[in-house]
Design goal:
single chain, about 170 residues, mainly alpha, 2 domains, 7 helices, about 70% helix
Length: about 170
């Protein structure tokens, strides 16, 4: 590769020129850069965490995330695969963390520990969800993704508030 800025030669797979740091325009094709290709898992984690606190997050996260991202997932005809992947990840994490929470909470007799395991569950689930979105919708616009995830967080907060009100009225 010959640099368009300084004219010196460097390897084709290098992201930028070794001498003048000019970007390699051929290597930086649209949608392949690290920044535009990766989704931020943090937003996914927040919605997963809030749904987790409602007590039935594993089913709601799968349904709501699939519905929110349906337009983008439907382009590649992978909405059902994404839903199944999220549901399996949720159920698997639930059954992996449930015995840990039960055994260690009885041994330690501390609800703080079970809360920490629940947070770890939400973080891992958010990470898996973001990776599934990256896998099934690699060309997803980052700003559109962030918008959809903010909607998911708002829905999760609403469901959480409704759950708290219903549980409070049952007492």
């Amino acid at each position: 590769m010959i640099c368009h800025k300084c004219g010196k030669e460097y390897e084709d797979d290098m992201p930028k020129c070794l001498w003048c740091d000019a970007p390699n325009e051929e290597a930086a094709a649209p949608g392949t850069t690290e920044e535009s290709g990766n989704r931020v898992a943090g937003l996914f984690m927040w919605s997963c965490m809030i749904f987790n606190f409602t007590g039935f997050g594993y089913i709601y996260v799968s349904i709501i995330q699939t519905l929110l991202h349906y337009k983008e997932l439907h382009k590649g005809k992978v909405a059902l695969r994404f839903f199944i992947g999220m549901l399996l990840a949720n159920v698997a994490l639930y059954f992996l963390t449930l015995p840990v929470i039960n055994v260690l909470t009885k041994a330690i007799n501390n609800t703080l520990f079970s809360t920490c395991v629940g947070l770890a569950y939400a973080i891992v689930l958010g990470f898996i969800g973001a990776k599934l979105i990256n896998f099934y919708a690699p060309d997803y616009d980052k700003s559109e993704y962030r918008k959809k995830e903010r909607i998911a967080i708002a829905i999760a907060i609403i469901v959480f508030i409704i759950t708290v009100i219903v549980l409070k009225n049952k007492q």
